[in-house]
Design goal:
The complex is a heterodimer. Chain A is mainly alpha-helical. Chain A has helices spanning 2-52, 60-85, 91-122, 128-145, 165-183, 186-196, 198-203, 208-234, 244-257, 262-278, 288-300, and strands at 156-157, 236-237. Classes of the chains: A mainly alpha, B alpha/beta.
Chain lengths: 318, 253
C-alpha cells in the first residue's frame, strides 16, 4: 500500500517536472540535469560491484557502451518494423514501448557481456577483474570504431529521440530502489561478506563466485540501461564518449562520495558532473580539479564524503 | 556409522608432506579432540575437511557423501561449519549481521522478493533475526547485537565466530583453537558452553586446541598427530599416559 503511494507520487512529480523543467531552466541546464541522472545510474550500479561486493571493476564505460549501441542500433534499424507490430497504439505510446524495448535489450546485452567477462575473472581471488575489465572497455571501444553500421569513428547519427527527464530520472529512481533493497537483504549481506572476508564467506556456505558474478551482472545491466537512455537522449553516439576516462570518472564519483554508500554514489555523481561542466572553459585544465578533490578527500575524509552513513538505514537494519 | 570420516588422506606441499595417511572417524554426538605440537598439521587437516585444500590421496566423507575436492561453500551446505584460528569475522557488519550472513543459504525467498521486498521476504527476515538473537543470547552477545563486530573484545569475537558457525545449522562443527588467548576461567566457561551446544543442537564437534587442560577436560576422544601422522588415539587418560605423546610434546630423553 505504502509502496503504491510512493510510486504514484514519484511518477506524478517526475511528470510535472518533465512538463515544465526544460522551459524553465533552458536547454543547456536541462542537458546537465539529464547527464547527472545518467551518471547517478552509472555510479550507483558501479558501487554495487566495487563498493558493496569489493571487486574492483574499472571498465564500467564498456557496459555503458554496449547498452548504448545495442539500443541505438536496434531502434535505428528496427523502428519501422517495430512500429508496424504495435500500430494499433497511438504514436506517443508507441514511442514509450520502443524506448522500453530498447532499454530491455540494452540491459540484456550489457548483462550478457558482464556474464562473459565475470565468469572467468571472478572465479579467482584478487585483482583480476580490474585487469580484465580495463581490457574489455577498450576492446568494446575499438570494436565500435571498426563497425561501419554504427558509424564507426564518425559517430552514430540519427538515433531516435525517445528519452527525456522523466525516463532518465524514473530509471535513476528504479536503480536506487533496486540496489538499496538488494544491499539491505540477505543478498546484500552475502555481497558484503565477500568484501569483508572471502574465505569466511565461503566457509559459511556462500558460493562466492556465484554471488560475485551475480553482483557484477546486475551492475552491468544498469550500466546498459544508462547507455540506452543516453543514446536516445543525445540522438548521437561517439566512441569517444566511452573511453577509459569515463570509467575513471565513475570511480572518482564513488570514491569521493563514499565506497559502498548509495547516497555517496549519488552525491559523487552530481558533484563530478557539475564540476566537469562548470569548468568547461578551462579545457583540459579542469581535470586538475579531480586531482585536488581526490587528494583532499584522501587527507580529510578517506571513507568518502558520505562514508558509511545512510539516510535510510537504521543501525543493525541490514 | 560415522558422520565424518577421513580415510588414508595425504596432502603434500611440494616436497613437504603436511598430512600423511591420516584416518579419522567421528560418530554422531562426538566431542573429538585433535591435538599435536606446533606445525603438526592440525590446521591442514581442518582445511582438507572444509574444502580449502583438496587431498592428494584418500577420501573424506560427511554423512555418507564424499566431499573431497568440493568447494567449501558446497561442503558448508551439506552440514559442515567452522571457526577460524585467526578470527575472520565480517568486520564492517554488526554482530547480528554476522550471524544473519551465515544463514543466507537457508533462505527460501529469491532475488525478486528481495528487490520488491515482498511480504514473505519480510516475514522470513524477521524469523532469521529472532533466531539469530536467540543464538546470540546463549553466548551472552545479545546486548551488543547492534555494535560493529570489530569493536567487540577479543574473547567475544571468538564466541561470535562460534555463533556465526552455528547459524548455518551444521551437523558437524569444527572449532579451530576456540580458547586461544582466553584466560583459564574464560576457557573453562567456553568449554561448558561448547558441551551445552553439542547437546542442544545435536552436534558433532571436532576441536583443535593447544590448551591441554581444556582438551583433556572436555573431549571424550582425542587423536594426537605429529608431522602429519597419527601417533596416538584414545580417551584423555590413555593419551596422557602415552609415551609417544609425551615424547612429541616434551622431546625425547
Amino acid at each position: 500500500m505504502k509502496k503504491g503511494i510512493f510510486w504514484i507520487l514519484a511518477l506524478a512529480i517526475l511528470a510535472l517536472l518533465q512538463s515544465g523543467l526544460q522551459g524553465y531552466i533552458g536547454a543547456y541546464y536541462y542537458q546537465i540535469v539529464i547527464f547527472v541522472g545518467i551518471n547517478i545510474i552509472l555510479a550507483v550500479s558501479l558501487n554495487l560491484i566495487n563498493g558493496t561486493t569489493g571487486q574492483f571493476s574499472i571498465g564500467h564505460a564498456g557496459f555503458y557502451a554496449v547498452g548504448a549501441y545495442t539500443s541505438a542500433s536496434l531502434l535505428y534499424y528496427g523502428e519501422p518494423t517495430f512500429r508496424g507490430w504495435i500500430s494499433f497504439l497511438p504514436h506517443s505510446a508507441q514511442d514509450v514501448v520502443l524506448l522500453l524495448f530498447g532499454l530491455l535489450a540494452a540491459a540484456l546485452a550489457a548483462g550478457f557481456a558482464g556474464l562473459l567477462v565475470g565468469i572467468p575473472s571472478l572465479r579467482l581471488r584478487g585483482d583480476y577483474l580490474a585487469i580484465v575489465t580495463l581490457g574489455f572497455g577498450e576492446i568494446i571501444r575499438v570494436l565500435i570504431l571498426n563497425i561501419n553500421a554504427v558509424g564507426a569513428a564518425r559517430g552514430f547519427l540519427g538515433i531516435p529521440e525517445f528519452s527525456n527527464f522523466f525516463w532518465v530520472y524514473l530509471f535513476a529512481l528504479i536503480t536506487v530502489v533496486v540496489v538499496h533493497n538488494l544491499v539491505n537483504s540477505s543478498y546484500g549481506r552475502a555481497f558484503i561478506s565477500i568484501r569483508d572476508d572471502e574465505i569466511a564467506a565461503e566457509a559459511m556456505g556462500i558460493d562466492t563466485t556465484r554471488f560475485k558474478v551475480m553482483s557484477f551482472v546486475i551492475s552491468s545491466m544498469f550500466a546498459g540501461i544508462a547507455g540506452g537512455l543516453f543514446a536516445h537522449f543525445t540522438a548521437f553516439l561517439s566512441p569517444n564518449t566511452f573511453q577509459f576516462t569515463t570509467s575513471f570518472y565513475l570511480i572518482i564519483m564513488i570514491v569521493v562520495g563514499g565506497m559502498g554508500s548509495i547516497e555517496g554514489a549519488i552525491l559523487g555523481a552530481i558533484l563530478i558532473t557539475v564540476i566537469l561542466e562548470a569548468f568547461r572553459e578551462f579545457g583540459a585544465f579542469r581535470f586538475v580539479n579531480f586531482a585536488v578533490l581526490l587528494v583532499l578527500v584522501m587527507l580529510f575524509r578517506p571513507q568518502g564524503i558520505v562514508g558509511s552513513w545512510s539516510l535510510f538505514r537504521k543501525a543493525g537494519a541490514r | 556409522m560415522s558422520i565424518l570420516s577421513i580415510r588414508q588422506c595425504t596432502k603434500r606441499f611440494g616436497g613437504l608432506v603436511a598430512v600423511k595417511d591420516l584416518n579419522m572417524a567421528l560418530n554422531p554426538g562426538d566431542l573429538y579432540g585433535l591435538i599435536g605440537p606446533n606445525g603438526a598439521g592440525k590446521t591442514t587437516v581442518f582445511n582438507l575437511i572444509t574444502g580449502v585444500y583438496t587431498p592428494d590421496e584418500g577420501a573424506i566423507e560427511l554423512d555418507g557423501r564424499a566431499i573431497q575436492g568440493r568447494k567449501p561453500s558446497t561442503i558448508a551446505k551439506q552440514g559442515m561449519s567452522r571457526t577460524f584460528q585467526n578470527i575472520r569475522l565480517f568486520k564492517s557488519m554488526t554482530v547480528l549481521e554476522n550471524v544473519l550472513a551465515s544463514s543466507h543459504m537457508h533462505r527460501k525467498q529469491g532475488m525478486f522478493d528481495a528487490i520488491v521486498r515482498t511480504r514473505p521476504l519480510k516475514n522470513e527476515e524477521a524469523e532469521i533475526r529472532t533466531a539469530g538473537m536467540e543464538l546470540l543470547k546463549i553466548f551472552g552477545l545479545d546486548k551488543r547485537a547492534h555494535e560493529l563486530a570489530s569493536n567487540l573484545p577479543y574473547g567475544s569475537q571468538r564466541r561470535l565466530e562460534i555463533v556465526r558457525a552455528l547459524a548455518t545449522k551444521p551437523k558437524v562443527l569444527l572449532l579451530d583453537e576456540p580458547a586461544a588467548g582466553m584466560n583459564p576461567q574464560e576457557a573453562i566457561d567456553l568449554m561448558h558452553l561448547i558441551q551445552f551446544c553439542r547437546d542442544k543442537f545435536h552436534l558433532t564437534i571436532l576441536l583443535v586446541e593447544h590448551n591441554m587442560k581444556v582438551v583433556m577436560g572436555v573431549c571424550e576422544k582425542i587423536q594426537v598427530i605429529d608431522y602429519g601422522e597419527t601417533i596416538a588415539l584414545g580417551s584423555p587418560k590413555e593419551i596422557r599416559d602415552d609415551p609417544r605423546v609425551i615424547e612429541a610434546y616434551l622431546g625425547g630423553a
